């Protein structure tokens, strides 16, 4: 069945795992309290798209950034679960360029474009900001 609380994951659920990720999944269960769970791993890989396809195919549960799976969620192929228990894991991007007295117009234009394009909430976000 569909897990309703994090401890439900202990009931015969298998995880699809990123090869370089921590072995535990972390969930917020109270204001200042988190719990970690280590589920049995069915498949380990280093490619998020591959793991997302396995989840679509029903091979296990996947804890992945929404930019990997937002299309499958919008198409109804995947369903987010336990969203109210997820810890906040923002991924931040930076524009790095040499410090100069005058920033070139090309660099300024690129930085402004990226800031406007991604904005506060990226287009792939599946959760309200």
Task: Write a concise synopsis of the structure shown.
With 129 residues, the protein is of the alpha/beta class.
Structure description:
With 129 residues, this protein is of the alpha/beta class. Helices cover 25% and strands 17% of the residues. The chain is built from three helices and five strands, in the order ββββαβαα. It has helices at residues 48-56, 66-74, 105-118, and strands at residues 15-18, 25-30, 33-37, 41-45, 61-62. The strands form two sheets. Strands 4-1-5 form a three-stranded parallel beta sheet, covered by helices on one side. The two termini are 28 Å apart. The model has no long low-confidence stretch (mean pLDDT 87).
Shape: elongated
Describe the largest sheet.
Answer: 3 strands, parallel
Low-confidence stretches: none
User: Strand order across the biggest sheet?
Assistant: 4-1-5
Number of strands: 5
Q: What structural class do the secondary elements suggest? A: alpha/beta
Distance between the termini: 28 Å
Please write the string of helix (H) and strand (E) elements.
EEEEHEHH
Alpha-carbon Rg, integer: 18 Å
Q: Averaged pLDDT, please?
A: 87
Give the helix proportion (percent range): 10-25%
| Beta-strand share of residues | 15-25%
Number of helices: 3
What are the salient characteristics of this protein?
single chain; 129 residues; alpha/beta; 3-stranded parallel beta sheet; 5 strands
